[in-house]
């Protein structure tokens, strides 16, 4: 951690100490550190450690799953804090659709203890300009800002672009999602030779992350990690 980063961390900790508690978004009880209280945190659906290290789907012994062995994704590993189920799904939706931007910090903080391999740079999942104008912000960029600042890793938000305004993945059948994202992204040569971490809110099928990782590797990236707040599990699809 740089001297500047350490100084900023000390300032933040002192501000947290003197600021009053705020109500937990889930139950209303006083909370100081996060958007939710400690009691609610214990009940959140944290992802089980017994999962595939590459795609984060459950496996019996934390081994690489059969799907990743047969059809390896373009990203080498996945970091996911939660299973995408209640109430995490509501927290993610509040960030994404209700402009609850303060949630970005708490959700990103939940990812930090799981990040072991530090990449060369962080890239948020890009939005198409039309979608960005409609929403007003990119939730993946909000998550990335906190992670990059806390980990002291360069954030490169403009290296990749979404060049096709694709249909929302959530409204498509599973088999159509990969086709919907074909050649949806473009990437500059700045990533050549780098280990890149892509940050997104949720991994469902992994099609968006896989297509962006494919684009990054075509531009010369040597390794890609996927960092997400939550992973959709098979029983919840």
Keywords for this entry:
237 residues; alpha/beta; Rossmann fold; four-stranded parallel β-sheet; two-stranded antiparallel sheet; 9 helices; 8 strands; 36% helix; globular; ComF/GntX_DNA_util-trans
Protein described:
With 237 residues, this protein is an alpha/beta fold. Helices cover 36% and strands 16% of the residues. A 4-stranded parallel β-sheet has the order 3-8-7-4, with helices on both faces. The protein has a two-stranded antiparallel ribbon with strand order 1-2. Helix 9 (207-218) links the parallel strand 7 and strand 8. The N and C termini lie far apart (40 Å).
CATH architecture name of the largest domain: 3-Layer(aba) Sandwich
Number of individual domains: 2
Indicate the radius of gyration in whole angstroms: 18 Å
**Sheet having the most strands:** 4 strands, parallel
Rounded to the nearest angstrom, the distance between the terminal CA atoms is: 40 Å
Protein name: Orotate phosphoribosyltransferase
Domain Double zinc ribbon: 17-69
Pfam family, one: DZR_2
Keywords: Glycosyltransferase, Transferase
